[in-house]
Amino acid sequence: MKFVTVEHAGRERVGLLDQDGVILLAATDLVSVIEAGPSGLDAARDELAGATRVPLADVVLRAPLRRFRRDVLCTGWNYWDHFEESRGKRDGQDVDRPEHPTFFTKGPDVVIGPYDEIAYDPAISAKWDYEAEMALVIGKAGRSIAVEDALDHVWGYTLANDVSQRDLQRQHGGQWLKGKNIDQTMPLGPWIVTADELGDPQDVRLQCLLNGEVMQDASTKQMAYDVATLISELSFGMTLRPGDLLLTGTPAGIGNAREPQVFLREGDEVVTRSDKLGELRNVLVRKDLA
Fold first, then answer.
1. Which end of the chain is more exposed for a tag (fewer CB within 10 A), N or C?
2. Are 16 and 56 within 8 A, CB to CB?
3. Residue 252 CB partners (closer than 8 Å, separation 6+)
4. DSSP label at 48?
5. What is the CATH number of domain 72-286?
6. C-alpha dist (Å) from residue 65 to 248, 265, 289
7. What are the φ/ψ torsions at residue 13 (nearest 5 degrees)?
8. 271, 279 in Cβ contact below 8 A?
9. What is the rounded distance in angstroms from the CA atom of residue 43 to the CA atom of residue 26?
10. Dihedral of CA 57/58/64/67: which sign?
11. Are strands 21-24 and 11-18 parallel, antiparallel or unpaired?
């Protein structure tokens, strides 16, 4: 199933995407469906026969997750080709290949919808960069989850673009918080594909296009650490809960590593797309963030 959060007739609703449009469900918050576990999915199925169906053109797709119990969880350097392409381009902050996944967080205020404007302010940064990523949503709580059990904790998968400000990323002691947390800059969606429908998360094609030109093109098979390993490592001593969102890293092709470098500007259109997860389409629009 493909779950969406939409605005319809002035209200936010949870829906299911089908070939005829959107089936509106009773729930107004997708996290409540996720927290209900298998019974939540069963309840959604039970609603299908009598639910209202509306054309996709009659709704506005919002970010599928609108309520977060914690910051967005993220993975860095999870494609070795991406790690290697930036050698010598980290402003003196190069490190050896990590022996474990690298994690960081983004605040919920970064999240925007699949077709919303990306807020752009050159007073904030001169080096705005794109990072197409597959993201996953936790569906079952767990701590110190074994690798072999990890995929049982995934509720579904979606797309994100971890738009980053590279100069801010380097200016604050080598940590990434500031360069990854500018408001209204991370598109999410367009829907969440349930884990049973997606199948193997290591067989997803991921692309990023800038003004129609393909900048990133990779398969999740190329991940340094697969989805199960990420969940196991992240959950070590730390409880993951239903509704938690984890970005799984970006492949090679980022603007900062190109020669010459390519950074985002006002009016640019960034498309993040996947063969199995849909498409984000966002334009950078000038806003006062400083």
1. C
2. no
3. 79, 81, 82, 84, 85, 216, 218
4. G
5. 3.90.850.10
6. 17, 27, 23
7. -140, 155
8. yes
9. 10
10. positive
11. antiparallel
pLDDT tens digits for range 33-54: 999 999 999 999 999 989 999 9
| Structure letter (DSSP) for residue 89 | -
Structure tokens at 208: 């990023």
110: helix, coil or strand? helix
Handedness of CA 201, 240, 208, 83 (dihedral sign): negative
β-strands 118-120, 278-286 pairing: parallel
DSSP letter assigned to residue 50:
G
Interval 71-106: pLDDT, tens: 999 999 999 999 899 887 777 678 888 999 999 999
Rounded to an integer, what distance in angstroms lies between the CA atom of residue 218 and that of residue 189? 19
Pair 13, 24: CB distance under 8 Å: yes
Are the beta carbons of 64 and 236 closer than 8 angstroms?
no
Q: What is the pLDDT of residue 289?
A: 96
The pair of structure tokens assigned to 271 is: 């498309």
The residue type found at 218 is A
3-state SS track over 185-205: CEEEEEEEEEHHHHCCCCCCE
Domain spans, the chain: 2-62, 72-286
- C-alpha 38: how far from its chain's center? 23
Would you mind telling me the total number of residues written for the chain in this entry? 290
- Give the three-state DSSP class for 229: helix
Query: What letter represents residue 75's amino acid?
Result: T
* Contact predicate 247/157, CB 8 Å: no
